[in-house]
Amino acid sequence: MDKRKRVASTITGELIEAHSLIFTKNKCSPNARMVFTNAESLVFDIWFDKHYYIRERHGDENGKRDGIDPDAVKNCVLKAAKHLIFYAIKLRNFSFVNFGVVNRPERVILTLEKENEINLNIVTEYHHLSLNRYEVTVKTALRKNDFYFGDGDYQVTIHEDGSSTLFRKERGKVNSISEYLSP
């Protein structure tokens, strides 16, 4: 007779085998077995446009741009990647990646909100290189709470608690499209 260890199921109260044959509840089924977990990797090559560097290093007619240093900008771009992928999977009509050469490339404004600080806004373009590799170019960055962006552009605002909101400007009006609520 087989003397395998038995444990009580927290779902049904029945005795089940304590190894890879356990059936549990998942998002789709009350009785499923996980057989494998796989983590895919995506590579984002981050580039800084010359316009960004001039603003960061020398400023403009209003002076040097404080708070847009390369580390802060890079960290915001990295933090936004998961949010952009979430929205691209969740929303049928949202795409932030440009494929090939286009007349007006899709741009996404990444906005990082922090309490008692002025928002960090980063204008980015994402371009497809290969199946798991993408090029991200930071066009410019600016600290401003009422950042202006053009019709058709998207904005992802990342809140301090880890949640985010996706906006799109259409016909001069900024519309909230979706939200990611941090668990």
Set out the fold topology:
Elements: E1 6-8, E2 15-17, E3 43-48, H1 50-58, H2 70-90, E4 97-98, E5 107-112, E6 120-130, E7 133-143, E8 154-158, E9 164-170, E10 173-180
Descriptive notes:
With 183 residues, the protein is of the alpha/beta class. The protein has two domains: 1-38, no CATH class; 43-180, no CATH class. The protein contains two helices and ten strands, in the order βββααβββββββ. The chain has helices at residues 50-58, 70-90; strands spanning 6-8, 15-17, 43-48, 97-98, 107-112, 120-130, 133-143, 154-158, 164-170, 173-180. The strands form two sheets. Strands 3, 4, 5, 6, 7, 8, 9 and 10 form an eight-stranded mixed beta sheet that branches. A two-stranded antiparallel ribbon has the order 1-2. The protein is elongated and about 80 Å long.
Based on secondary structure, the structural category is alpha/beta
Shape: elongated
Main beta sheet, described? 8 strands, mixed
Helix content: 10-25%
How much of the sequence lies in strands comes to: 25-35%
- Described by its quaternary structure, the protein is single chain
Number of domains: 2
Element pattern in H and E: EEEHHEEEEEEE
Q: Report the strand count.
A: 10
Number of helices: 2
* Residue windows where pLDDT falls under 50 for at least 5 positions: 15-19
Radius of gyration, CA atoms, in whole angstroms: 22 Å
Task: Give the end-to-end Cα distance, rounded to a whole number of Å.
Answer: 46 Å
Mean of all residue-level pLDDT scores: 87
